[in-house]
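Final report, closing paragraph on structural work. Over the funding period we assembled a curated collection of sequence-structure pairs, and we close with a single example.
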Amino acid sequence: MIPAAAAAHHGSVNGAAPALDPAEPVDSAAAEGALVPAELHPRATRMVQAHHDFIWRLLRRLGVAAADTDDATQRVFMIATRRIADIAVGSERSFLFGTALRVAPEMVRAARRQAPLTDDGSVHERRDSSPGPEELTAQNRARAALEELLLAMPLELRTVLVLFELEQMTKTEVADLLGLPVGTAVSRLRRAREEFRAQLKRRNARLGRRPSDASA
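Its predicted structure, as stored:
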């Protein structure tokens, strides 16, 4: 299980999805660009209003950089908007979820290719540009540690852990979203927790061998 403190830091430091005006429809130019029939614009609007925050958080927690999360979210919804006529009513969340699982790794890989290298040859990842008080240091470290551990996990295990531990979904909800029998989802969650603990153990051992990095 993800430590409560780390999970709390992960949520608070990552922030929240930009607020949506519930009365604001999907941008007509964007909808037209996505070849959405006019009669489906209201449905596309409801889809965005209902699932925007979930998809934004999911992408962020799957490793998309803070600076790229808005763009990634827009990409997911543009894909869904283009396919809105093919998505069964009531299946919008499932479709968005599957799309986000494809978009997130692509965005992460693109960010790594574009990120500058540090003096030791490692990738220098972009950080949130908004200034914060000194007391946010511990939270930033906890968030960075959690993101490091999650990104080291296979995507299928990372996904089920994020849904259950961070999104606080029930096992049945996770199973439904992943299209798995509940027993399979539970088994995958157990494997995800074991993998998370193994990653944490390896990280602690690594830091233990390098005392100067213990505060990282």
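The chain is about 65% helix and 0% strand. The radius of gyration is 19 Å. We thank the funder for supporting this effort.
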